[in-house]
Amino acid sequence: MTGQTGAGETGAGQTGAGQTGAGPVGTAARRPDGPAKIAGTFPYAGDLRVPGALVAAVLRSPHPAARIARVDTAAARALPGVAAVVTAADVPGAQTYGLIVPDQPVFARDVVRYHGEPVAAVAAVDATAALAALAAVDVKYEPTPPLTDPTLVWDGAPRDHPPVHPDGDVFGEIHISHGDPDAHGPVAVSGHYVLGIQDQAFLAPEAALAVPAADGGVDVALATQWLHSDREQMAACLGLPEEKVRLTLAGVGGAFGGREDVTLQVHVALLALRTGAPVRLSYGRTESMLGHPHRHPARLSYRHTATRDGELVSVTARLLLDGGAYASSSPAVLVNAVTHAAGPYRVPNARLDGATVRTNNPPCGAMRGFGVPQAAIGHEAQLDRLADALGLDRLELRRRNLAQPGDVLPTGQHLPGPFPLREALEIVAARPLPPPPSGPAEARAEARAVRRGVGYALAFKNLLFSAGFDDYSTAAVHLELGPDGEPIAVVRSAAAEVGQGFVTVAGQIARTETGLSAAVVTPADTSIGSAGSTSASRQTWMSGGAVRGAARRVVDELLARTARRLGLPAAVAREPRRMLAIIDGEIVAPEAGARVPLSRAVREALAEGPLVAEEVFRHRPTQPLDARGQGDVHVAFAAAAHRAVVDVDVELGLVRVVAMALAQDVGTVVNPLALTGQVEGGTAQGLGWAVMEELVVERGVVVNPTFNGYLLPTFADVPDLDFTPIEIPQPDAPYGVKGVGEAPTCSATPAILAAVRDAVGRDLFHIPIRPWDLVGPRDLVGPWDLTGPRDRVEEGAA
Amino acid sequence: MIATRLSYPLTVDGVTWRVRDAPLTASLLTVLREQLGITSVKDACEQGRCGSCSVLLDGTLVTACTVLAADASECRVTTVAGLPADGPADAVRRAFAEAGAVQCGFCAPGFVVAVTDLLTRRPSAGEEEIRTGLAGNICRCTGYGRILAAIRAAAAAGATAVAGEVAAGEVAAGEAAR
User: Fold this and answer.
1) Any CB–CB contact under 8 A between B143 and chain A?
2) Does the pLDDT value for residue A156 go beyond 80?
3) Which residue of A has its CA nearest to B25?
4) Which residue of B has its CA nearest to A4?
5) What's the pTM?
6) Does the domain formed by B5-82 have CATH 3.10.20.30?
7) Domains present along chain A, CATH in parentheses
């Protein structure tokens, strides 16, 4: 990693308006919000307090499936200190919401479909009164048998279970047919994998503060990833026009996809409107883990065939993603999973089938990687198996089959470049390995049961929204005078800063384009157009593009006004950049022999009126998949290669990740420090899913919705990351950027799985790896082998 | 008959508050956040697993969510805002900002308290000791890499400062001898 010391940067010591010292694009500018976060003064959503605010709480179903025979709130309403109790009967507008399909009830009315589904909500003078009110709500549930096996919905097997939902139980189904899908090579390997649920486990649980407004609307400060999507869904459910639902982003303590859906938004706003008082609602950890959608658990069945010299001939895959009770973003997650199912390889023939279905398990939706981490586990395990079957080196098999820009993917899309995955593979393969375990002789003797393994994995991840979605971001840049009278660039955007560093990047872009040393990013809110979601590795590219465009246009206006004041010809004012430029704090017009200090130019231009420009940025359009799964579906890809080194205690079944190396295709680096943070964090989340993180669900009931039960990687679990960025500008992106946050999560998990397989010499079928997967009986494969014969090597089958 | 609500004094960062009518079962975390409005102490798991609410109780590192507030009544509670100025706290804060140790930042106040405690007790802690000593503080964003860099920088700054004090002390001793 280079250039992250950021010599001369002093931004970290400053906050707020007038911040100086933070650098332009390409520097390790420090976070403007860093010092406040460190001091504990940064206001997260759960820290917001206003006088007279009521405290809300939500009653949730203990059953994954039940009929609701009765909800009686009279006793709860009568308790002292209780201001309101609301149920489905009190929802004034649409009864349901959803990111793609509005199928999720604000409150369950007649039927409960998952453990933790909201049934009622209360507002009271304090938390004690609110909890007493919840206990006094009388709900009569009639539990019904939950549908918890997704294969009962989608493998064609007959079932006697009634539909979970009247809309049907298949959220989406995709069939990609490529080349001759029945072709196969002489060597075949099959594999079947069960992937558990990963939770985003962002550290700050969901929270919001809603304040009723005099116009009958409501102002809500909350932690979210997508203000405008929340607003649209909230307004529909509240029966209000969107302009009466005004949202402001409060401090967000992590997201990772888990804040893309509506959770508490409608409840808190409804209670504020009902009581006429401010209402705050904060989840605890258990409520958070029951309340937001997770990463989809999946069942993957794969069959790869190749020639005897290791050229891929075909990939057959069936991917079944359990979407849980409601749709959330399941259909979009499925597009990603299936279109990435064959991996970043040249595959001449493929049949890739996938479905995401409804069950009474917890709803699942967006999490970092969005369907691609599931696919990467499958294709990388398969490549290792195939290499072993062929007697080929595992890296060499990958080298022979890696996709290059221009190659046709199974969707028919030509792989867009740059795509330096071969370079990434060679870089991680050449990085020095950690020394073997060492220590006193006694420790070595005890360590005889410890085996070391090394594994590699490659992944690619689509960037931005795909499949024909009209993806855009809005931003405005104002040039103003700061409190000290010096000019300042003020960036307005609804892009959600969730910790990833958009506020840092937006300031860098504004400084770069305006030449000003001071730039501030105002709090995100819905007073400006949508910036889209903080997801899909998209904000630096999309909202960064919008900020750059707005900044360029406001500078155009500044230069035009300056040209006129300088008495330059009208033609110059129309295209001022032909003669004027901002260099080192001055506007210079060499041909006219003019130089104006930037601060004076801004002051003078402001005398003519505000300097402001707004930009709506779009990426190139994409196409939805057609009936054969064909289409120019993705805008671009980022590539990543990981090497993992693990020590496995084969008696206890414990895994320690000793070292990780990553080489990643990152485009132009906007901020090397933020880049390092993203790839280190993304790697750690991939590590967590490989070896410890699983939300365990038994007959529809989440059994470990706490940090006691759900293990997260600690300081002692995550080794240093040996990271090499590969910086090739992305041609169609502002400054040549690429999104960087998701690709390493996609490659980290399969690299660790590969290293563990290497250490223990056995197949692994369940993710995360559990101790009994390493020391228990071998070959525990479920009954959901969906691709046909499980032959490891079929000689002469072609 | 045991009272279910209690009033008692609570000393936080050198200021003694009067906690009024708090539930007997209220944790120190709940009283700090909900009664005293001290929101720098974060509530992320409320099971003592994540360290977001790390504070010092009479100088000992604890998770405020697993301490009964009433039990802390006789103690000095130190939050991130009250860490002693003569210790490594300032160097830790600076290093966290400079090294990129903060993303969402929700773990940061607790981390600063825990790191300050570690470096106060073990100013030259090695990597293994840092990793195990801080395994009770979860960060979900950073993967700990930049946090480790910050801790190393803060430790190095502390070592420089100590060396400076020793040097200054030697000069003073020399002058006294003359």
Assistant:
1) yes
2) no
3) A128
4) B99
5) 0.94
6) yes
7) 472-618 (3.30.365.10)
